[in-house]
Amino acid sequence: MINTFIRYFIRFILVYLFQVLVLNNMQYSGLINPYFYIWFILVLPFETPGWLVLVSAFLLGLGIDLFPQGISGAAPSMGMHAGATVLLAFMRPMVWRWISPGDGYDPKTLPDTHFYGWIWFMSYVMMLTLIHHLALFLLEDFSFHRLHILLLRVLLSAIFTWGIIMLWEIIKPGKQRKYG
Predict the structure, then answer these.
(1) Residue 108 near residue 180, CB atoms below 8 Å
(2) Within a 13 Å sphere around the CA of 27, how many CA atoms are in the beta-carbon half?
(3) Residue ranges in the chain assigned as alpha helix (H)
(4) How many independent structural domains does the chain possess?
């Protein structure tokens, strides 16, 4: 149990550092913003208690919010990432129900490509990425004035984030095994 906690804590820190030190400095024309940090919440084990997923999402999002955004050193984003990431964590079980495999889920497995295949994982990641990004960019713009730009940002950023997550799933180190 302690080893599992330490492993996830280290993963949490590494994902956070990768996001704030590398990916926050990659913005293309203000339309594409990669948010790989959501991967941490996406791949938490099925049996992780809901309250722990929500608290982890809040802490991760808050950490992203508190760090200056990108090379420009723009002001922290005042809870927008925390709100969008908590929404993602809240929606996670609902998305599982929508795309449930015929024989259900084994609670001792992880929601990843190894156990449920690429199609399932791609669908899962894309749905939750779109939910997260739509919430994030709506909170950021807080307006429907330029809805076409907002939807373009959501779509392009979601595709880019999804691509980074899929690339990570292809190259990630370590052998996949059952959780616990």
Answers:
(1) yes
(2) 15
(3) 2-21, 38-42, 50-66, 80-98, 113-141, 147-171
(4) 1
At a CB cut-off of 8 Å and minimum separation 6, what does 98 contact?
A: 127
Residue 165: inside a domain: yes
pLDDT in tens, 45-75: 999 999 999 999 999 999 999 886 654 455 5
Question: Are 78 and 68 within 8 A, CB to CB?
Answer: no
Reported as a single tens digit per residue, the pLDDT across 141-155 is 877 778 888 899 999
**CATH at residue 123:** 1.10.1760
Residue range of the domain that includes 119: 2-91+106-171
Residue 175: pLDDT over 80: no
Let me know if residue 180 belongs to a domain.
no
